Protein 1
Amino acid sequence: MPLDVSKVRYISLIRMEGGESVLNIPYAELTVDPDLIAGFVTAVIIFAKTPIRTIRKASYDILIQVGETVLVLLVVDPVPDEAPYRAKLQHILNEVESLHGDKLRHFEGDVRRFREFALTIIKEFPFKSADLNMIPVFTNSGVKIPFRVGNVDHELEQVESFINGKRTVAEIMDLMGHSDYEVQALMSILTRYEWIEFKPRLRDNDVLQIQDCPAIILDKLKADYGQALEDVMTKFDGTAKIIDVVEGLHNKEAGLHYDKNALMFLIKKLVEVGCLKSVLAP
């Protein structure tokens, strides 16, 4: 059975000697404080030396993968098959012990050095899987990414440089030359912390409808596009397809001769700023 990332709630790396949590990544809200969960698991595994791999609660399961220097804790909604989740936990465990084993053995109390490892975890468990045919666009509501340091920052800057409101996720994957799962992980980080959202690519048969948009935006568009803006806006009543509107406004016999490419550019612009919205995509 395939892994379902929507069931993941919380992942933590806990140092075996001492029980300190060196990295925590919340995925969803928990009814129980995740620090209490980590403390409970630490007590059971480290101090009681009990070889427990799964702890089942009423509304969630705790999957535990134990190594020499660290244990990986995954809080997940009940799943019928642990195997795909546990395989990824083992890969995370192997990676963290390979990269940071010495730091974990000679721990000095500074957990900041482990923040970059968040990207390795999210490559295995992305916050959300993006639709490859959707177009990522920047928002104005992004919040601080707690592990955006070092290589994580570099990788996020790279993917951000390819986001222009026109390319789909699949097209960005092709251009970046990274593995698909790496790009998915980076996109999921930007989505989780509200730096991007996704919109569909407009198709000829899409039906658009006029939306309320700020007067300041309309005034600027009117100044830029003049009569063409009004001609386009009045055609979209929630029943007209894009292709029909474009053909109608390009009809020389009707006294109109707008360039089709220019019309499509204007329509896409109106969708981007929220003045038009797709209501049907057959």
Note: The chain is about 40% helix and 20% strand.
Protein 2
Amino acid sequence: MREWPDVIEYMYTLEDIDVPDELMARSDIGAQILCSQIDSDHQNFIRRSVISQLDKPGKLNWRDIRVMGHINWLSDPATPARLSELTRFNSATILRVNQKLKAAGMIHLEEHQHDARSNVVVIEPAGRNFMTAFFTAYERESREIIPAHMPELTEVDIQTLTKALLVLHERAERLAGLNLSGRHKGYNTTPFAQEAAKLKYGMETYLPGLVFQLLCRRISRDYLVFFKRHAVSKLTADPKIKLRELRILMCIEYLNRPSAPHEIVSVMRYDPATVTRAITILCRDGYTDHVVSDRDEREKPVWLTDNGRLIADEYKAASSGSLWEADIITGQALSKEQMRNCLAALMILRKRSRVFSTYRKGVHPRSKRL
């Protein structure tokens, strides 16, 4: 029988949340994982319950809609570089998305008046109508879940959670802006994020879930940029280990026991095929190995080998050292209390986003209504 997350009976305050000591000990890595989970869970809801209802010219997907959403409410010129900065998509991806949106009649391109090397992306009436339909569908589907299976967020709740996310957003953004020499040459969209949360999302449309998903995606991606550049690159693993495989290895290390692939899928929010491929590579390269399950002979749990343990310890040391150096350069280290509040906010949002991810219309037990 399908198991559903517990119904959330009320909005916890940040002080109510018990943040585990092991999470505090690796707070930045934990924040990245929590943000990735929230982003992934909310994407599942949007793809399954919202986009599936819409008429999608050109077979638009969630990636295309995210880019068009930025074009829709940007007050300054929407250049490809600006869209790349805000979405964290690379320039080649933005180019492909713009071509797809243009072919679907959602946008058109104009020459940039002050930069001959660039152009300006302008949304068409059809694009604005599509985004209106998207927001309407999102709000309608959200009302199937709120307040039936979780409490409605008050304005105070939204402000509390948004404030915590923006603190973490600024930290992750500054970390991602550090190049290998320690110079800060990255993007800085935190002022934009604050303005968007305050004015554009306001919350006059009252769609805080989208704001939280947007911020969590940025935080997750920025942390990954930093860790890949300043920690993963320092590992002495032979053969070299890629970020995806390293994240799964560290997930097994964090769980602190032999773990079946489906457990890793649940934590990392990867699809099963991705986890299977990664585990195959880790086992082939000698970093993990399968062990016998004492619960189910069909399971194939994996555990770290001695080499895997060495790499996990090396990565923890490299990431901690890189964060310490970055805090000195940026002068932006968060206090223990600030980080605890950020993690508490993410734990609240993860519980809510998990309900969205697992909800099925007409399937979720109505007997659990509040």
Note: The longest strand covers residues 107-111.
Protein 3
Amino acid sequence: MKNRYDLIIFDWDGTLIDSIDWITHCLQNAGAVLGLTIPERQAAKDVIGLSIHKAMDTLFPTASASQHEHLVRLYSEEYFSKQLSQSDLFEGVYEMLEQLKSAGYLLAVATGKTRVGLNQALLATATEHFFCATRCADETASKPDPLMLNQLIQQANVLKERTLMVGDSIHDLQMANNADISCLGVSCGAHSEACLQAYQPIHCLKHTTEILPLILG
């Protein structure tokens, strides 16, 4: 994989930052507050990466329009009640980003988060300067639609053949397949290696930082 890519696009939650358990809790608790059927833990994990509206539609299909908006509000209020810091990144991720950028790679983020959520996370983790471009679900199409990848590739002015998507969910890898770009799975987040392998990633790693010997040699 050395010298094969110019642009590496990372998912955020579950790929760069250890946030899956917190997001799962917030999704489940939103339903509990409204007295709705609380989704199982894996069901909640399964929607991470989708836009928040698409996630709530999936988890609570019988919710009314007003309940849907209430679910989104409850989720957001609880999610943002936790103060993030650089220590929430997976171990070694900050240093990994430093090494990849120093080696000349363009780095980007494609996430199901809102723009407000991603901006807050980038600021709290002091990682914004690593990325040449970012896309969020509330400013483009939700995963697994390939639009956000196509937009990032266009903004970075690179070829699809020179682009790699790295993600922890099936939505990330399906989006990469839909965009016809290479992908690499990491099993430290929402989905297991068995689930990710169904989308034919080049490799499936246990931790995102394991990309370094593959990319840098």
Note: The chain has two domains: 7-17+85-216, 20-79.
